[in-house]
Write a structure and sequence with these properties.
Elements (H helix, E strand, L loop, with lengths): L1 H15 L13 H9 L5 H9 L3
Amino acid sequence: MTDNIEDKNNDQNSNDLNNICDECKDEDESVSQNLILTGFKICKSCRVSKTVFPI
């Protein structure tokens, strides 16, 4: 029973670190870095655009 819970947690963690931006859906290395720094899965170009134009 605990094996199923651990498998679901591992699947969720691997989906969180897949380096795909939530805004533009592009794959970039900076997505995982920004996830650790800010808690948002966005690439560096989306982060800059959100900083300059915060809507």
